[in-house]
Design brief:
Layout: E1 4-7, H1 13-24, E2 28-33, E3 48-52, H2 58-72, E4 77-80, E5 85-87, H3 95-123, E6 126-131, H4 144-164, E7 169-174, E8 188-190, H5 200-215, H6 221-232, E9 239-240, H7 245-253, H8 256-267
Parallel strand pairs: 1-2, 1-4, 2-3, 4-6, 5-8, 6-7, 7-9
Amino acid sequence: MRKTVLITGASSGIGKASALKFHTAGWQVVATMRKPEEADWAPSGAGFMAARLDVTDTGSIRGAIDGALNRFGRLDAVVNNAGYGLVGPFEASTPEQVERQFQTNVFGLMNVCREVIPHMRDRRGGTIINVASMGGRITFPLYSVYHATKWAVEGFTESLHYELEPFGVRVKIIEPGPIRTDFYDRSMDLMSKPGLTSYDGYVEKTMPNMQKAGYTAPGPELVAQAIYRAATDNSARMRYSPNSASILALRRVLPERAFYSIVRKAVAR
């Protein structure tokens, strides 16, 4: 029997690349996004379904999952990929911006998990794959709120994997480094506050260096391969770190002061 995967945030970037990867590998794919009518790249055929899902709208989550189960009968893997980056000095943020960041990156991911867990628990099988970031284990300036969400995803996922293990449900985390997607353009929300100019020099110095890392990074297909591997390796491995293993290893072995010095030099050179 062909396996089925549901992917959130599949309109572009990592989500789109993952949908195409699973489809090419013979899986039945439910590629979800807020505007599925714009998915003109979607393959034709009975094994691919584009569905509306907004992770901040519980009704749309239930609708997409019900539609997937009605069409394909099962969900073998769910990839929580939807998210975006809120960037800038924290002092410039508004409560509404911070809330929206958490609603999408954390609470939305939790909402999808809450709705899909009963199906997998009853089937006593399946894999939940949460796309975090190397930014869920290390930090850079101007990404404080984004980092807060990804650290939350790391903690949530690690705890959840204990709870679901007795039911045969695997829970995995993907921790990409910089990836060349619209994260650095269309999907980025910049924080600014009228009259707040104290950070301007620092932002002008550091932001181009961090943006350059994204523009020169590997494409989303690299992460799609890691996601597919997480869905198919049937192991107890929880973390997958495409293009971030080296810097995460440095964070583990170096004294904090030394690691922070490396970050400062990299972003403010």
